[in-house]
Amino acid sequence: MKKLGSAIQGLAVAGFMLASGAVWAHGDVTPQAVDTSGLEQLGTEWRDENPYRGNPRAIEIGESAYAQNCARCHGLEAISGGIAPDLRKLEPGVDGDEWFKYRVQNGAVRNGVPYMPKMADFISQEGLWAIRSWLDTKHVDE
């Protein structure tokens, strides 16, 4: 009987959290700031193409920034465990840049539930393009 009471109490708490909007699909996570020292500053107008492609400093920054901000959902080394897209399969070049830019600016929502926050609200354009630069190094064909 005690187990049944605990189960009911747990369901009540979960229902309250869902009703209050306190639950995100991957957790209510605040992205971490990215130190972009050593990279050219890009200003406020978003670039359409990754300006740091192949830049060793950007790749280094991007690797750390990815681990802090993206790996929880997209997997270590960008190898997805099924929760979120496998970013190693992101198209290389400007075509992949277009999708990446759209997603980090707009996030992802399914059935009204945020699955990914609008990362550009938390991480600078420089930090996000650095992540994209690192992801380029992990690319695999499907």
TrEMBL record:
<dbReference type="InterPro" id="IPR036909">
    <property type="entry name" value="Cyt_c-like_dom_sf"/>
</dbReference>
<dbReference type="InterPro" id="IPR051811">
    <property type="entry name" value="Cytochrome_c550/c551-like"/>
</dbReference>
<dbReference type="GO" id="GO:0046872">
    <property type="term" value="F:metal ion binding"/>
</dbReference>
<feature type="signal peptide">
    <location>
        <begin position="1"/>
        <end position="25"/>
    </location>
</feature>
<keyword id="KW-0349">Heme</keyword>
<dbReference type="Pfam" id="PF13442">
    <property type="entry name" value="Cytochrome_CBB3"/>
</dbReference>
<dbReference type="InterPro" id="IPR009056">
    <property type="entry name" value="Cyt_c-like_dom"/>
</dbReference>
<dbReference type="InterPro" id="IPR030991">
    <property type="entry name" value="c550_proteobact"/>
</dbReference>
<keyword id="KW-0732">Signal</keyword>
<keyword id="KW-0249">Electron transport</keyword>
<keyword id="KW-0813">Transport</keyword>
<keyword id="KW-0479">Metal-binding</keyword>
<protein>
    <submittedName>
        <fullName>Cytochrome c-550 PedF</fullName>
    </submittedName>
</protein>
<dbReference type="GO" id="GO:0020037">
    <property type="term" value="F:heme binding"/>
</dbReference>
<feature type="domain" description="Cytochrome c">
    <location>
        <begin position="57"/>
        <end position="139"/>
    </location>
</feature>
<dbReference type="GO" id="GO:0009055">
    <property type="term" value="F:electron transfer activity"/>
</dbReference>
<keyword id="KW-0408">Iron</keyword>
